[in-house]
Design a protein that fits this description.
The complex is a heterodimer of chains A (314) and B (65).
Chain A lengths: L25 E8 L10 E2 L10 H8 L9 E2 L4 E7 L3 E4 L5 E5 L3 E8 L3 H8 L6 E7 L4 E4 L5 E2 L2 E2 L6 E5 L8 E7 L9 E4 L15 E5 L3 E4 L2 E12 L2 E4 L8 E5 L4 E3 L3 E4 L6 E5 L8 E6 L9 E3 L2 E4 L2
Parallel strand pairs in A: 15-24
Antiparallel strand pairs in A: 1-3, 1-8, 2-10, 4-7, 5-6, 7-13, 8-9, 8-11, 9-14, 12-13, 15-17, 16-17, 17-18, 17-22, 19-20, 19-23, 21-22, 23-25
Chain B lengths: L8 E4 L2 E4 L8 H8 L7 H8 L16
Classes of the chains: A mainly beta (314), B alpha+beta (65).
Chain lengths: 314, 65
């Protein structure tokens, strides 16, 4: 960010209140798509906070937003954070004096302990997006930037700078995922602001992101229902971790053939096979294709994000 | 898509039922639909899902005479 010269007003005052908060070390990052689908910045509208407090209802609405483009994606806890600006860029003259040209780039790195290839794959999906980031510090403050009234906005990352990697374990070190990125040159550290932890009643510091859920091939399909195994992509290839605890309100079924919503009659979670669900629906027509998705009602009630799957009625 | 509210959902064992889905369904139809699909007792489940199945006969009005 170019440094503005206050030629007409003199320098900025350098006094400070006797007591004021400062940022603590970063413990988590919240990745967001910087722009919402309507083109506005995907920030926190301060007027939307009930009583000025960032409460659990607000946090759930952001993390469990059914719209992935406006959702918040908190990382697991980050270790060994570095968040530093490179040396200023200067022009040096023959007399060895120099003048300031611009600030160096601010680079961020952090480690996710027990990061694995599945999480790495999901991090890699961010590479080609226009990314914004909020930081959560050790004190529980939510850090963003404020350069428009009434909003705490995410900090813009430099395009194509987001880089995750897998660091395999060693005899003396745990497996990790690393993330690194560069803050956009359009950003100015002087605009960094926070919602203080004292104004946050939500459990921000321990907030986790949604977990992907994938469906297996539906079985026992009839005109009135089907069975389906729902697993997360985590775990071994022969021992995936099942998605447990989902219920009727977590799903929607749509008949793609007739373009009509199907009201689910019941959902049964197997008491024997973890993640095996039996759906019963009103009688469908042979050959119809049903699409099963997350509920469209935001926020999601569970921490799962189901990838839609189809069922063809026999 | 229909938005389910919690009052519409009744949980019996591991199954969550949409109570509205059973309007007009008979006990026999229910038992046929869920035969082999539930580990819970179907008669007991039906009692909870459809507790008011008896149709009250309209009382005959007594003559005012």
């Amino acid at each position: 960010m170019a440094v503005l010269c206050a030629c007409g007003t003199g320098g900025g005052n350098l006094g400070r209140p006797s007591c004021f908060p400062v940022f603590d070390v970063t413990k988590k990052a919240i990745l967001v798509e910087y722009y919402k689908p309507d083109g506005s910045v995907n920030g926190v509208e301060l007027a939307s906070l009930t009583g000025g407090i960032l409460d659990q209802t607000y946090l759930d609405a952001r993390i469990k937003d059914v719209n992935g483009k406006t959702r918040w994606y908190p990382t697991p806890e980050l270790k060994n954070i570095t968040d530093e600006r490179a040396e200023d860029i200067t022009e040096t003259f023959e007399d060895t004096s120099s003048v300031f040209i611009q600030e160096g780039a601010r680079a961020f790195t952090g480690l996710i302990v027990k990061g694995d290839p599945v999480l790495l794959g999901n991090l890699q999906k961010w590479r080609c997006l226009t990314i914004g980031v909020f930081f959560i510090d050790k004190a529980g403050n939510l850090i963003g930037k404020q350069n428009r009234d009434g909003f705490l906005d995410p900090i813009l990352l430099q395009d194509e700078s987001f880089s995750p990697a897998l660091i395999k374990g060693t005899d003396t070190a745990k497996q990790k995922d690393s993330i690194s990125f560069i803050i956009s040159q359009l950003e100015n550290d002087a605009n960094l602001r926070m919602i203080e932890a004292g104004e946050i009643t939500a459990n921000l510091i321990s907030a986790g992101g949604l977990v992907d859920v994938n469906a297996g091939t539906p079985a026992n399909v009839s005109v009135t229902g089907f069975d389906v195994q729902l697993n997360t992509p985590f775990g071994g290839v022969t021992s995936p971790i099942a998605a447990e605890g989902l219920g009727l309100a977590d799903f929607e079924v749509f008949n793609d053939t007739t373009s009509a919503a199907v009201v689910i009659t019941s959902v049964t979670e197997s008491g024997i096979t973890e993640g095996l669900y039996t759906f019963v629906v009103p009688t469908q027509t042979s050959g119809d294709v049903l699409i099963v998705t997350n509920t469209s009602v935001s926020p999601l009630t569970k921490n799962f994000d189901l990838a839609k799957f189809t069922v063809t009625i026999p | 898509m229909e938005n389910l509210n919690l009052k519409q959902i009744i949980k019996i064992g591991n199954t969550e039922f949409n109570k509205n889905s059973f309007e007009g369904m008979t006990k026999d139809e229910f038992k046929k639909l869920y035969k082999g699909k539930l580990t819970i007792d179907l008669d007991e489940a039906w009692k909870q899902i459809k507790p008011n199945t008896r149709i009250k006969k309209p009382k005959s009005k007594k003559s005012q005479d």
